[in-house]
Specification:
It contains 16 helices and ten strands. By secondary structure, the protein is an alpha/beta fold.
Length: 469
């Protein structure tokens, strides 16, 4: 490149000399000086001539540089799109199972979400802040919801193409829809929701929801109960417009204990029995958690009120019940059967190397095996298992490969992250809230205009994206 530029400078210099000669002028310029330039002392003339020579030289250099740069630009070609990387997919250890239910994942598909360019990314959790609504208006936030539903249709089709027929919908499908001030009806998007629901029904896919941890049915504050009911009604409205049947359940945890666990349990029962609208109660199921309410606490509520229990294996390992998992499953399956709802469970693993309770709560990228309880007679046939793992659809596809549950497309596989950490990541709320385990136990609540919620995708990690309540 340097040699090219030097050659171009020489050509430009020669060009200047030729142009001067063609004009009938001496390249020496001495005759011109004698006739047109006032006489000056010899030293000054030498100095001036030196400056003129320098100016001509610099001009030649600039012309040569511009010419060279122009030719380089002309030589440049548009960048070709990078080819898809070649993934090395290791084989897996094969195992047998009696399980014949469906495996699903929560909210986000990593392949679709990471498509390049970013404008091609597919995901159903576009959200915003209240300041953005104030600035852009309600039509703008409604459009976010519309785009989320359009991408949901794409996700459902991708799942069908890859034999995954169980999906948890993101609670951020319609940002702030349950807000006391900025909330709105989903009527405007009913036809698009119906299209998404019809596609899921056509393929036999199950769709469920899981509002965040700030949905507290046992709070001592009436305002929090009202906010929680609005949130549940929003999820039910979404499922209703999609035409989802009984299997489209809405899952909530027991919540905080508020320094009075027996009293809180009574408030939970009162809210479910006497306060929840009937259509909300018909979709409600409870789930055992790892800090406050295990199966010992929730099964009596569920059996008394005929509310199914979603059994979470990971939570039970962290906060064990006195009842063996197999017995818990049989008892809650009986409630599901009475209600005509297909049973549902949650499976996740702690991250490698996790020691403390807070570390062990965080989900691993994938699950290595199915629970032994699913091998028991009659248990693993009709249960749908939600895989709560960071690698989402990849965690499902890996279990498909391990147990031979479904055919897997090689091009849909991605290698696991070899450097999993015990740390968790997520956007922080701008609210000053209690953090960590004690916040969950005490019952952290969101109230008022800027109340917050946690995306159900990361609820069990306790570190999810903080959004509206």
């Amino acid at each position: 490149m340097a040699n090219d530029i030097r050659q171009k400078r020489k050509r430009a210099s020669d060009k200047v000399s030729v142009e001067i000669e063609d004009a009938g002028l001496s390249s020496d310029l001495s005759d011109i000086e004698d006739e047109f330039i006032p006489k000056t002392p010899k030293k000054k003339r030498k100095k001036k001539a030196g400056k003129e020579s320098q100016t001509v030289s610099e001009a030649v250099k600039v012309d040569a540089d511009e010419e060279a740069e122009g030719e380089v630009k002309k030589a440049r070609r548009p960048r070709r799109p990078k080819p898809e990387p070649v993934y090395i997919i290791q084989d897996v250890e094969r195992r047998d199972t009696k399980f014949r239910g469906r495996l699903g994942y929560a909210c986000l598909n990593t392949i679709l979400r990471n498509k390049k360019p970013a404008s091609d990314a597919v995901f159903c959790s576009r959200t915003c802040r209240i300041d953005s609504i104030k600035k852009n208006g309600m039509d703008w936030v409604r459009e976010l919801g519309r785009k989320n539903v359009q991408d949901l249709i794409t996700m459902i089709q991708w799942n069908e193409d890859n034999n995954i027929r169980f999906l948890r919908l993101s609670s951020e499908m319609f940002p702030f829809a349950s807000h006391p001030i900025y909330g709105y009806s989903l009527e405007y998007c009913s036809s698009l929701l119906a299209e998404a629901g019809a596609l899921a029904k056509k393929y036999g896919h199950r769709l469920t929801t899981h509002p965040g941890q700030f949905t507290q049915l046992g709070s001592p504050k009436p305002g929090v109960i009202e906010s929680s009911i609005r949130e549940l009604e929003y999820h039910c409205q979404m499922l209703d417009f999609m035409g989802v049947g009984k299997d489209g359940v809405t899952i909530v945890h027991g919540g905080g204990v508020y320094d009075d666990k027996p009293g809180t349990i009574e408030r939970i029962k009162t809210t479910i029995r006497d306060v929840l609208p009937q259509h909300v109660r018909e979709r409600l199921v409870l789930e055992n958690d790892e800090l406050c309410y295990n199966a010992d606490d929730l099964l009596p509520i569920c059996e008394e009120l005929d509310v199914p229990l979603v059994f979470d294996y990971h939570h039970d390992a962290l906060k064990p019940s006195s009842i063996p998992p197999a017995a818990i499953i049989k008892r809650t399956n009986a409630i599901f059967a009475r209600r005509g709802i297909r049973p549902k469970q949650h499976l996740s693993d702690p991250r490698p190397g996790a020691v403390t309770l807070m570390e062990r709560r965080a989900h691993a990228d994938r699950c290595e095996r199915l629970p032994d309880e699913l091998e028991l007679e009659g248990i693993g046939i009709d249960i749908d298992l939600m895989i709560e793992a960071k690698d989402k659809e990849q965690a499902v596809l890996q279990l498909y490969r391990i147990y031979g549950l479904e055919e897997v497309k090689y091009e849909s596989l991605r290698p696991p992250n070899e450097n999993q950490t015990k740390e968790t990541k997520g956007r922080k709320s701008n609210k000053k809230a209690k953090k960590g385990e004690q916040a969950m136990i005490d019952g952290v609540e969101g109230e008022g205009e800027d109340s917050v919620n946690v995306d159900e995708d990361n609820v069990e990690d306790g570190v999810g994206d903080m959004v509206h309540a």
